[in-house]
Write a structure and sequence with these properties.
A: about 170 residues; 9 helices; about 75% helix; B: about 210 residues; mainly alpha; about 0% strand
Chain lengths: ~170, ~210
């Protein structure tokens, strides 16, 4: 097991801060793309690391810390979405936070793609992010989202079609 | 292979997920059909763009200070106490916490007021210890609520979560203001007031869960 992970597991906050710095970009990108809401992504990223700190003692080191926290992020974001109450609150804030999405992007086409991604319906966006960007398979996505693998595939095709329509005039 | 069949198979074709025989059939169709060929090219371009997106995006601000406050205020494993599933245990805990945290809330409010009116040193520095105690009190109440929330109606959960989000946003914004104006005792009072509101709301939510 990585020394930083072992030290953080023993309560060393400065070691955990190093782990945060190494992984925050990946966690934030995932939260941002799955939620399409910069304020919520900020909040969920914090939640992921707080949860990781609490669960670190249960981390056995069978996988890399980055894979472990990636899985933790996906589970946390999706469980957040499943909660109707919070979803409603997120929709309230989404309109006011869209301008900060993609601020760090440099290339025009990439910004267009991120923007089109943000505007996809939630279900289609989640499947596309998990499948095309994060490399999950339909069987895994189906389990995570509580849908059939066929539905995952249909959502992916729908998401790609909508993306193309948004990007091609 | 019909035009429609090929259209349906294009995603798998572009991803190279088809068996050799089917892939060859699709390729033969693509040689003859400009529409499908165009469709395959556009899909391929899209996937190339999507897969080239960066895997990391840095958040627009450093989130560590907020995370650090939260992990200092919250011990390990509070979310994971699964033995608290019995209703009477949750109810008993809620009663104890409501009583205990009312006293805590009062003491913290007095402490915050004192630190805000102290004549020397930045208000922020003096408030940090109090803030940590607020964070701990909030963490305790949140953990209780996490265990008890299933006893609330969906409407009550909606209302509570919505209000918590509003309060959390207010805490974030006021905290940022205090960081920019560490000498401002008025901002300390404002922040302390918002924390008190959060403690009050969580107490009420736990009480509702207990009484439902």
């Amino acid at each position: 097991m990585n020394d930083l992970v072992r030290r953080a597991g023993n309560g060393d906050r400065s070691a955990f801060e190093h782990l945060y710095r190494e992984n925050v970009g990946r966690v934030y990108a995932l939260c941002l793309r799955l939620t399409a809401d910069a304020a919520l992504a900020d909040e969920l990223t914090q939640d992921v690391f707080v949860r990781a700190w609490q669960k670190l003692r249960t981390f056995r080191g069978e996988s890399a810390f980055s894979s472990w926290i990636h899985r933790l992020t996906v589970n946390l974001v999706l469980s957040h979405r499943r909660a109707d109450v919070r979803r409603a609150a997120r929709e309230e804030t989404a309109a006011g936070t869209s301008s900060s999405f993609g601020q760090t992007e440099r290339e025009g086409s990439r910004i267009d793609l991120e923007r089109a991604l943000r505007n996809l319906p939630a279900g289609a966006r989640e499947v596309l992010v998990l499948y095309d960007i994060e490399g999950y398979r339909h069987g895994e996505i189906a389990k995570l989202l509580g849908i059939a693998p066929g539905t995952s595939k249909a959502q992916l095709h729908r998401a790609r079609k909508l993306l193309r329509e948004a990007l091609e005039p | 292979m019909t035009h429609d069949t090929v259209q349906n198979a294009l995603h798998d074709y572009v991803e190279q997920a088809l068996d050799d025989e089917t892939a060859q059939m699709v390729e033969r169709h693509l040689l003859e059909c400009a529409t499908c060929r165009e469709e395959a090219n556009r899909l391929d371009n899209l996937l190339t763009g999507v897969r080239a997106l960066p895997r990391t995006i840095e958040p627009p601000r450093d989130l560590w200070p907020d995370i650090d406050v939260r992990i200092r205020g919250r011990g390990r494993g509070l979310f994971d106490r699964s033995l608290w599933s019995l209703r009477y245990a949750v109810a008993a805990a809620a009663v104890i916490l409501v009583v205990a945290s009312s006293a805590v809330s009062y003491q913290l409010a007095m402490k915050a007021r004192r630190s805000a009116t102290m004549p020397s040193g930045p208000a922020l520095t003096q408030f940090m210890e109090t803030e940590l105690e607020y964070v701990r009190a909030v963490a305790e109440l949140e953990d209780e609520l996490a265990r008890a929330r299933q006893m609330l109606t969906p409407e009550a959960r909606t209302l509570i979560d919505r209000n918590l989000r509003i309060i959390d946003a207010a805490i974030r914004e006021t905290r940022a203001l205090l960081t920019m104006n560490p000498e401002d005792a008025n901002v300390v009072e404002m922040l302390s007031g918002i924390y008190r509101k959060k403690v009050d709301l969580l107490q009420q939510a736990n009480r509702m869960a207990f009484e439902s």
